[in-house]
Amino acid sequence: MSDNFKSLKAIKDRRNPSQDSLKKVTPTSICKVDECSNHVSEYTGPGSKSVCRKHQLMMREYGGNARLDRMWTFHKKDFCEGENCGHIPMNNVRIQSLPYDERLVVSRMLLHVDHVDSNKNNNHPSNLQTLCMDCHGVKTLRNKDY
Asked: What tens digit of pLDDT does each residue of 125-139 get?
């Protein structure tokens, strides 16, 4: 099964947030995403023991692309922050004929989260930027981050 098919299948299989039930939460549990001081989600479901509700809804299981094993993915924006770029994949004419949910998946695949200082362990928001594939490739070559 191709990765593209798996991604599109995930759209149809994603969790419906309205079906999550409330759970008991301890007030000492704080979201694990850098610079987030919210308490972990009060709802059951993927990520409910680790992240707040806002970040929980950004996870792959809910149609997003954030992953707990790659915390930087919670900081992806919907546009390129590259120098003189500003590319917004959702406006790409080549995907306008797709249904909205599928356009969203494709547009998320076209953007990457880049570590400004090339240190993949430094996931502080000030060290992260969202780049389109072109800008990310140029930065990688210029900085020899390969």
From this structure: 999 999 999 999 999
How far apart CA 106 and CA 100 sit, in angstroms, is 10
CA distance 40 to 53: 7
Identify the segments of the chain with pLDDT beneath 50. 1, 5
Instruction: Please answer whether residues 78 and 86 qualify as being in contact, where contact means their C-beta atoms are separated by less than 8 angstroms.
Output: no
Domain total for the chain? 2
Q: What is the mean pLDDT of the chain?
A: 83
Cα–Cα distances (Å) from 107 to 27, 61, 84, 136, in that order, read 36, 17, 19, 15
pLDDT of residue 6: 53
CB 51 within 8 A of CB 35: no
Q: Which residues pair with 100 in a beta bridge?
A: none
Range of the domain at 99: 76-146
Report d(CA 125, CA 74) in Å as an integer. Answer: 10
Report CA 44 to chain centroid distance, whole Å. Answer: 20
C-beta separation of 111 from 131 below 8 A? yes
Domain-terminating residue out of 71, 92, 110: 71
